Amino acid sequence: MKRLLHKDGTWAFLLLLPNLLGFFIFIMFPVLGTFYISFTDWDMAGDMKWVGLANYKTLFQDDIFRKVLWNTLYYSVVSVPLGIMMSLLLAVFLNQKLKFMRFYRAAFFMPVISSFVAVAVIWQWIYNPDFGLLNYFLSWFGIDGPSWLTSSVWAMPAIILTSVWKNLGYNMLIFLAGLQGISESYYEAADIDGAKWYTKFWHITVPLLSPTTFFVTVTSIIGSFQVFDAVYLMTQGGPARATSVLVHYIYQTAFQYLDIGYASAMAYILFFLVLIVTLIQFARQKKWSMY
Amino acid sequence: MKQHVGFRVASHMVLIIGSAIMLFPFIWTVSTSLKAIHEVFTFPPKLFGEKILWTNYLKVSDRYPFFQFFLNTLKITAITVVCQLVTSSMAGYVFARLRFRARDSLFALYLATIIIPAQVTIIPNFFMMRTYGLIDTHWSLILPGMVSAFGTFLMRQFFLTIPAALEEAAKIDGCNPFGIYWRIFVPLSKPAMATLGIFICIGVWNDFYNPLIFLNTTEKMTLTLGLATMQGLYSTDWPVLMAGTTISIAPIIILFLLAQDLFVRGVTLSGLKGE
Predict the structure, then answer these.
(1) CB-CB neighbors (< 8 A) of A90 in chain B
(2) Domains of chain A as residue ranges with CATH
(3) ipTM value
């Protein structure tokens, strides 16, 4: 016991205590709790009934679950590449000694720091079929715009567009930091060889930026799996679940239908998906450490 | 990179158009918040109404306790920022500098939880809050926010960069680890703490998911939940809704404009954790 209370150890324990308490009560315990609950049938009021793998088996036959997984994938597959390409492009343009640099950076960062609630109010108005800006803009070109958020075809693209608009500045800044980490000397050497700008972009920028690109891709994918605010605030998952995503369904199952066991099983499926993407990142990081 | 003049001009054009697309919805929000309601529905839309109506801002607080939402959000954000900075910096110091058994495995456990989605922890947290009668109180938002694995990680990474020589002298003078933390590490980590503080601040101020789940009573709502609820009730009164929107985002935008460089560093730091 005395050896345990070695000077450093005691202080370490005391300084760590508040953090440890919070960590175990609000993170570790709930993580294990949800795992246990996912094997039960529970409505949060009565007793928990152990049902083994029943919740996970039900998931495979649940049409709504299949639908929300598909919608989440749709959101992910479109919004991630679109967001990455646009933010990389902007970062390349910003990576010069430009006038108004701070202004541009601030402009692109405004949506990032705004709450999705505010952004959703604004964009619902932009998407309004009768007096919204988007359809007015389209009318200049003789296009009769759809009723964006109530159309089962256009609601998801509209949500994706808003999300990409909101998150663009964040990835742009990370790319910018990555670009600024690339040594000038590579470009100078290429200039001596008379390389064209696209050659330099393709053979210097892209490969040397690949760790950043990979990081942005992984965090964007993880983020896209957890999209909720955009959907909940703009369409409530509608029309007819056309935009209902995984986290939206988990929220409904847990806090509206009070099917806690089933919701916990879905939460663990989400956890599992995020874990896979993260493990891929770890594996690739080792490979890329040569840069 | 050496750039041609043409590239510069093209860059400015792309960035100006891009900035306009980013800023225009905000400008339109503010202008709509100053319009009379019938002017919103005119087609084609006009940027400015005939008169500037400040009264929409008064209407917001007549219909909805917006000032109360503001105070609630401010209170929850301030307490969370202070608590998380204290717990993160103390634990970050311990993980960076003190030696004890199982330190590295404990830290690995912290790291592993950073990626865990909120949905995985929220159900037992909700149950705990209900058991202790904390649902629909601000404690249900403040307590789980007091500790973050990411904040602990960030502070540890920063403390690792502080040279050991600085604390050797203090050790010889008989300073205990808390004294070293308080007199050497805390003063040196002001930039890191400001960065982390701003991160926590935006996260809590803009949080919608947790208030949605934990709060019910109107008077206790945060700005985000209050605005969303108001939108459900007055979905067609756009000027008043836009006035509420403006009130809810203005503080964060002002904070951002005052501390742009800290924000930028924060994002860069969080980006670097993947490398």
Answers:
(1) 14-15, 18
(2) 63-288 (1.10.3720.10)
(3) 0.88
